[in-house]
Structures are given as C-alpha cells and as structure tokens.
C-alpha cells in the first residue's frame, strides 16, 4: 500500500488586498503630487521629495479610511 501524500496548506498571499489597495493609492497620490509640483517649476529633486512625502503621509490616512 502507498502512504497518503501529505496535504500542503494553501500559501497565504504576500500582501492582503487591503494593503495592496492602500499602497497603490498612496503611489498614485505621490505621483500626482510630484507631477503637479514639477509642473509648478520646482526642480526635480524637490518634486520627488514632495511626491514621496505625499505618498508616505497618505498611507496612515488611507489605512484608516479604506476598510477591509
């Protein structure tokens, strides 16, 4: 007789849907703010910094606003 093969549990996703949505929305916000800052004739490093700050600052707010 053959021994039954052990069953493997389903792998869990790397990120939950909630986390992926929050991070994707934060990236979009950062790109929009960075692009608008650049269009306002701010040098590229300043626009990148503004975009990064907007994306990072929006994560806690989006986490509380977007419910799983």
- Beta strand %: under 5%
Average per-residue pLDDT, rounded, comes to 94
Which structural class do the helices and strands define? mainly alpha
Order of helices and strands: HH
Poorly predicted segments: none
The number of strands is 0
**Largest β-sheet summary:** none
Q: How many DSSP H or I helices?
A: 2
Helicity level: 55-70%
Termini Cα gap: 47 Å
The rough form would be described as: elongated
- Rg (C-alpha, Å): 20 Å
Description:
Helix 1 packs antiparallel against helix 2. With 68 residues, this protein is mostly helical. It starts with 16 loop residues before the first helix and ends with a helix. The protein is built from two helices and no strands. The model has no long low-confidence stretch (mean pLDDT 94). It is elongated. 66% of the residues lie in helices and 0% in strands.
Defining key terms:
mainly alpha
What is the topological layout?
Layout: H1 17-39, H2 44-65
The gist of it:
The chain has 2 helices and no strands.
């Amino acid at each position: 007789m053959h021994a039954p093969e052990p069953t493997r549990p389903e792998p869990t996703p790397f990120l939950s849907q909630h986390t992926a949505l929050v991070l994707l929305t934060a990236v979009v916000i950062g790109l929009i703010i960075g692009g608008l800052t650049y269009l306002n004739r701010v040098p590229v490093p300043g626009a990148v910094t503004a975009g990064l700050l907007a994306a990072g600052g929006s994560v806690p707010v989006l986490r509380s606003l977007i419910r799983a």
